[in-house]
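sorry for the late reply, my laptop died twice this morning and i had to redo everyting from scratch. anyway the thing you sent over, i finally got around to it. pasting the sequence first so we're on the same page, its 85 residues, then the predicted structure underneath. double check i copied it right bc i was rushing
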Amino acid sequence: MKRKLMLLLACLFVGIGLVTAQTQKVTGVVISEEDGQPVIGASVLVKGTQIGAITNVDGEFTLLNVPSSAKTLQVSFVGMQAQEV
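ok and here's the structure:
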């Protein structure tokens, strides 16, 4: 009985490790191509999901719990052409 319990706990810890490894944190800076200045308030969205963020006063953003399968970010701002990166 004790051996089965230890095996169950070991499987549980391995399973938790695999689940947490499937997401990642993405950070970056949005900069205007025209003048090289940070873009304040730009929208950054992970394509195909509802995960997104708005850039701060330094143009920086952080996206949490991004699936490792996500490959594209959509960046948009009023008055500028949206881009996929």
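Residues 34 and 81 are 12 Å apart (CA to CA).
thats about all i looked at so far, will dig more tmrw
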